[in-house]
Structure prediction request, 357 residues.
Amino acid sequence: MNERVLHLDWMKGIAIVCMVQVHTAAALPVESSSVDHPLAFLAAAIGGMAAPLFVTASGYGIHISASNRERTGREWVSWAVPRATLLFLFQIVINLLFHVDRGGSFNTETPGVLTLFAASSLIIPLVIGRGVTGRAAFMILLVICPTLFSGHTGADMTWTERVSSDGLTEWVQRLLLDGTYPLMPWFSYVLLGGLLAEIGGNSGVARATVGFGMVFTLLTIVFSWNQGVNWALTEGVAVLTFFPASTAFVIVSMSIVILVKVLLSRVEEKLGSEASPILGHLESAGRMSLTVYVGHFVILGLFVAYYRGEDFALLGSLVVTLVHAMAWIPIASYYQVKFGPYSPEGMIRAFSSRLSK
Prediction:
């Protein structure tokens, strides 16, 4: 049994708490006067980094898990099929919990981040043997895909269109190009996670990449100021956009993700388990990130379906958001100890074990 990589668990823990934060903030009805407040901008910035951090950390874990398999057909099937199947099913569960008909944001068939992970599980066996150089080249190609295929990423789509699909053809289009987390470019974060798992967080390559990314980020800010264009928006006309993810956004967010990885790996090297008082509480949240991801949509789904009160003031929204996000840290710890085998992670392990026999 391989020893846990502590900073990977910390990284996933931070990522899933941030994911809960951004989804909670989006679900709360907030006074319109609060939209331009600095706290609203901070919440949006955390939200913008949550998904890149979550997908990269998950890609790191996928790579480690895949690398531990014997590369035979039976081994790959027993590893990939349970993951892909259950992740597809959990995506549907989330869509039903947070369905547009009950005040949520998704349709039943909406491809999302778990669909991205499911598809990644099927693709990884095809690329993991290509070596660091080959996968790095593939990652770079995916990063520039939003620029190469700018007319097909759905920049002018409404949210309703982005989470809808009429038949299999449109569903595949959402999965590949213009959904919420399309493979082009989001699979590049999965590949980044795998590359970080191999080259290490403190390597010269990682540090040089952070340096390049910081310079690139500064250049995007200067460009935004000179051209009078918004620097970052969730969607719309800006240098950095999330829906769809622009090439500039991917480069900037990847740089910040690598920086977080470098810092956390240094903390683990210097402190190891002694960092537990500071980061140890995040370990369970990281190990149970899929459980937290599914679980928090149960809470949010119930909230949007039944809350009919007045809009929250910004401060009230911030307090509720932080309390809900931080509450999942002890919940994850308790659930892991008491009900670990009955978690989504436990189900994937159990089905993988059965299929490999």
Q: What stands out?
A: The two ends are 18 Å apart (CA to CA).
